[in-house]
Amino acid sequence: QEYTALKLKVKEWPQSAKKIVDGKVPDGANVYFIPATLRPETMYGQTCCFVGPSIDYGVFKVSDSDYFVCSQRAARNMSFQSNVFPKWGEYPQVASFKGKDVIGTVVNAPLSVHTEGVRILPMETVKDTKGTAVVTCVPSDSPDDYATVVELAKKADYYGIQKEWAELEIIPIIDTPSYGNLTAKKLVEELKIQSPKDTKKLEEAKEKAYKEGFYKGTMIFGDFKGKKVEEAKALVRQQLIDSGDAFAYAEPDGKVISRSG
Ligand code: ZZB
What we know:
The protein has helices at about 15-20, 70-80, 145-155, 155-160, 185-190, 200-215, 230-240, 255-260, and strands spanning about 1-5, 10, 30-35, 35, 50, 55-60, 65-70, 95-100, 105-110, 120, 135, 175, 220, 245-250. It has a single domain, classed as Valyl/Leucyl/Isoleucyl-tRNA synthetase, editing domain (Isoleucyl-tRNA Synthetase, domain 2), CATH 3.90.740. α3 packs across α5 (about 185-190) and α5 (about 185-190) packs across α6. It is globular. The strands form three sheets. A nine-stranded mixed β-sheet has the order 8-6-7-3-2-9-10-5-11. A hairpin with a 4-residue loop joins β6 and β7. The chain is of the alpha+beta class. Bound molecules: ligand ZZB. The site of ligand ZZB has 18 residues, from β4, β11 and α6. Ligand ZZB binds near residues 39, 130, 133 and 206. Belongs to the class-I aminoacyl-tRNA synthetase family. It comes from Westerdykella ornata. This is leucine--tRNA ligase.
């Protein structure tokens, strides 16, 4: 699985998270949350970034000035690729925390229209076993993300967040013949998905959104406006990589992981 790993730079830690990095990351160093995405062409529409509240995360030193936040499993995988850590197989961990400890952190999401920054928010359905366990949220085109931001806004107190953190504007990025220009919203409504826990229906919605978006979608936002998604996907990805805002992250399959221990 070839992902695009995006670098969301921390702009502001909440009080509760300061003790995680204090004394462990040098003052002035950059800390990035690293979501793994299959849809780089949708990054204009990022409205927040999800972590699993009970998942364990690490802060890993990439250079004197740069630190990455992701699961330990992902950092290990990255250490066996040539483009991330300086030494093969080494992924120095300087701190650890649970997702719930960093809710409310403000990060800069590359290409997002929300240039003021977006918040780190909880998503119960994040899997520790896939990607980096950090998931950037694009509610226009990802049904899981749409269902989650609706839920978070509805029950903000329960989730310990401010309602407006989950209510950043959802902008149309891709137009499709079957679902219009807010594919995820349309599918969530059409399939009568009530909550992020409707996993079966969400799986179906995701399949439909992927197919329609990729084969029939046209960009209606950004530098590649007017181009088919099929073509724009690689162009946006390359642009993010060239600007230093992203890197390629290949997920080895399960067998490879267990064979190498
Ligand atoms: C932004 C985005 C925008 C995504 C979109 C999807 C869509 P897949 O298809 O199952 O392989 N993701 C990544 N890691 C995790 C994780 N650990 N737990 C839960 N979700 C995760 O999954 C790849 C997609 O699932 C990724 O691409 C990420 O969300 C999420 F418009 O990034 B995506 C129709 C989907 N649209």
